[in-house]
Design a protein that fits this description.
4-stranded antiparallel sheet, alpha+beta, single chain, globular, disordered N terminus, 230 residues, 27% strand
């Protein structure tokens, strides 16, 4: 996938800063899909999970994702896969073979010019003639909110820039949405997210974000005029 001019005026360039998880388009910071959902309370609540457990799970998830991306590209050296992550990666490999999944792009950085937000999809490709956006999850359970996340990545009018750069309309039709849950026993589970209200919920989260930003000044500390206090 190569970025090309969009033919609709000056080019838009997307950049991503992993450390702060910040997206910028032509230098202007944009909210992410995750940020929008967190602000609306639509993400999984991990407050009861110890911090060190969350950190380990996050590190494992990043490693699994990186290995799966390399597998999709045909560049994975299995000797480099951490033993704790190996079965999750095997689960992904089994899914690809069993379901006939053909990846077209991985870690796709996305921007919606009308709704003005960004995000990164794990992988998009085809199963037979059907395009599908897939989010990989190496988690014990799947959550309803994953549907909202995928809805944000697949809205009509999306633009993309593979690994950052000049944005262009996505070169695939609007895809189906699914999570592939990767399990520690090397099995997998496909969870479709095709409910129309996932899209409605995501758009609601977006509107809530805009509503809060428009009224940010009203959230400043309250200062009463002493003359009103008698």
């Amino acid at each position: 996938m190569h970025a090309v001019g969009n033919g609709r005026g000056p080019a838009r360039v997307l950049t991503f800063e992993p450390r702060g998880h910040e997206y910028r388009v032509n230098g202007e910071r944009k909210p992410s899909v995750t940020e929008l959902l967190e602000g609306a309370g639509l993400t999984v609540d991990y407050r009861a999970v110890p911090a060190h457990v969350l950190l380990k799970a996050r590190e494992r998830g990043l490693h699994v994702d990186a290995c799966c991306d390399l597998y999709d590209e045909g560049d994975l050296d299995w000797r480099t896969v951490h033993p704790e992550a190996a079965n999750y990666v095997r689960a992904w490999a089994t899914f690809c073979r069993a379901e006939g999944y053909q990846p077209a792009a991985s870690q796709v950085q996305l921007y919606h010019p009308e709704h003005d937000y960004c995000g990164t999809g794990d992988t998009v490709g085809t199963v037979g003639r059907q395009w599908v956006m897939i989010d990989r999850k190496a988690t014990v359970k799947v959550a309803a909110s994953y549907g909202c996340q995928l809805a944000g990545y697949t809205m009509p009018g999306m633009e993309c820039a593979e690994h950052g750069g000049e944005l262009a309309p996505v070169p695939w039709p609007r895809p189906a949405r699914a999570v592939v849950q990767l399990r520690p026993d090397a099995s997998y589970r496909v969870v479709p997210y095709d409910a129309p209200d996932d899209v409605a919920a995501f758009l609601g989260a977006l509107e809530l974000y805009r509503w809060r930003r428009a009224r940010a000044s009203l959230n400043s500390p309250l200062r009463l005029d002493s003359r009103l206090l008698g």
